[in-house]
Amino acid sequence: METQSEKSNRSTPLIVAGIFLGLGLGGFFDGIVLHQILQWHHMLSSIRPLTTISNIDMNMVWDGLFHAFDWIMTVIGVVLLWRAGRGNDVPWSSNIYFGSIFIGAGLFNLVEGVIDHQILGIHHVKPGPNQLAWDLGFLAVGALLVVIGWIMVQKNSENYEL
Questions:
Q1: Most CB atoms closer than 10 Å: which of 26, 29, 35, 79?
Q2: Boundaries of domain holding 44
């Protein structure tokens, strides 16, 4: 009989792939929805407000670099998923896979929210009178995604079929 630790070790390639995919997808959601569709902020909008063409251009470049980072995380996740799929001993579980994606997306929110919003202050989720509430909400969503993902991964069922 295989122990839970041995199952977890075999799950690691799928978990790591899911986390990278979650980082990339979480970043794409942020960049597409908050930066482009809603236009609540851009990468440097707190320190380079969109009041001049030069600042708009600078923010556009940094938004592009941000999307390039998201793309790299997603490509790494796809490559790792491909490699995990080639391993005959990797348990294919929806809980592990989607839970890991949630963990990665949550980690994106937590890291980006702490570094960009709080430490560097280069932008906020929705600038204005309630920006701290929006920033804290962003962090809370990240923490919630990590917790949900962790619970899903821990529910690693006996049936490993997707």
A1: 26
A2: 12-154
Helices (runs of H) and strands (runs of E) counted in the chain: 4, 0
- Tokens for 132, please give them: 């701290």
pTM across the whole model: 0.90
DSSP single-letter state for residue 46: T
Q: Per residue in 95-133, pLDDT tens?
A: 999 999 999 999 999 999 999 999 999 999 999 999 999
In a domain, 3, yes or no: no
Exposed, middle or buried: residue 26 (CB in 10 Å: 0-12, 13-18, 19+)? buried
Query: Taking a C-beta distance cutoff of 8 angstroms, is the pair 155, 95 a contact?
Result: yes
Within-domain flag for 162 = no
pLDDT in tens, 42-100: 999 999 999 999 999 999 999 999 999 999 999 999 999 999 999 888 888 999 999 99
pLDDT band with cut points at 50, 70 and 90 for residue 10: confident
Does residue 48 lie in a domain region?
A: yes
Flag whether 6 is in a domain.
no
Pseudo-torsion of CA 57, 127, 119, 132, nearest 10°? -170
Measured between alpha carbons, how far is 14 from 35 in angstroms, rounded to an integer?
A: 30
Rg (CA), the chain: 18
